């Protein structure tokens, strides 16, 4: 009886655990995406994960493509939160074969984040960035001084109206 019921269940549970471990450790692809993090929130009924979206803009003025991602590490989520509003590069691994949403709502799991250089918004329009630490800010280009413009002549003084006598009580 033991061999017919329990042993097959142990083997099935063992194979399922091996499958989950392999799906979690093996990544289908990995890479980086650069853009602006628009949303990051911790979600889930039982398994809490950080879910977010990154706006990818290939050409200024074009519609932004959204890259949806999941973060499991709270330290990485804090880094992403610290850099929200700035252009960042997110390093991700794509996991295929995870059967439930308990692992995350997406297949793209963020493993690292770094600040990325700003891109021009339009020809001649660039988002100003703070100077790098240790590097001096570039000096403003010298412009020739404007010629002195003579001041306009002062208006003639207008005499003040005589004060009315004070009424006595």
Word description of this protein:
With 169 residues, the chain is α+β, with helices and mostly antiparallel strands. The protein has helices spanning 2-25, 74-82, and strands at residues 29-43, 49-56, 65-71, 87-94, 108-115, 120-122, 125-126. It is elongated, with a radius of gyration of 33 Å. The relative contact order is 0.14.
Based on the structure given, which CATH architecture of the domain at 28-120 is correct? Answer: Beta Barrel
CATH fold title of the domain at 28-120: OB fold (Dihydrolipoamide Acetyltransferase, E2P)
Structural class: alpha+beta
Spatial extent as radius of gyration: 33 Å
| Total strand segments | 7
Average pLDDT: 76
Provide the β-strand percentage band.
Answer: 25-35%
Instruction: State the distance separating the first and last CA atoms.
Output: 124 Å
Order of strands across the widest beta sheet? 3-2-1-4-5
User: Which CATH class of the domain at 28-120 is shown?
Assistant: Mainly Beta
Percent of residues in helical segments? 10-25%
CATH H-level superfamily of the domain at 28-120: Nucleic acid-binding proteins
Label the overall shape: elongated
What is the string of SSEs from the N terminus onward?
A: HEEEHEEEE
Given the structure, what is the number of helices? 2
Helices, strands, pairings?
Elements: H1 2-25, E1 29-43, E2 49-56, E3 65-71, H2 74-82, E4 87-94, E5 108-115, E6 120-122, E7 125-126
Antiparallel strand pairs: 1-2, 1-4, 2-3, 4-5, 6-7
């Amino acid at each position: 009886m033991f061999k017919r019921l329990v042993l097959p269940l142990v083997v099935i549970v063992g194979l399922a655990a091996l499958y989950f471990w392999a799906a979690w450790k093996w990544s289908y692809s990995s890479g980086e995406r650069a853009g602006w993090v628009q949303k990051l929130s911790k979600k889930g009924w039982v398994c809490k994960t950080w879910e977010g979206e990154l706006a990818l803009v290939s050409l200024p003025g074009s519609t932004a493509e959204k890259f949806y991602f999941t973060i499991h590490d709270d330290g990485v989520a804090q880094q992403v939160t610290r850099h929200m509003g700035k252009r960042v590069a997110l390093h991700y691994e794509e996991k295929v074969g995870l059967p439930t949403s308990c692992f995350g709502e997406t297949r793209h799991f963020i493993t690292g984040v770094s600040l990325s250089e700003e891109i021009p918004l339009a020809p001649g329009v660039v988002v100003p960035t703070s100077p790098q630490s240790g590097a001096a800010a570039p000096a403003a280009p010298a412009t020739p001084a404007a010629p002195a413009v003579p001041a306009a002549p002062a208006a003639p003084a207008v005499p003040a109206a005589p004060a009315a006598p004070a009424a006595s009580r």
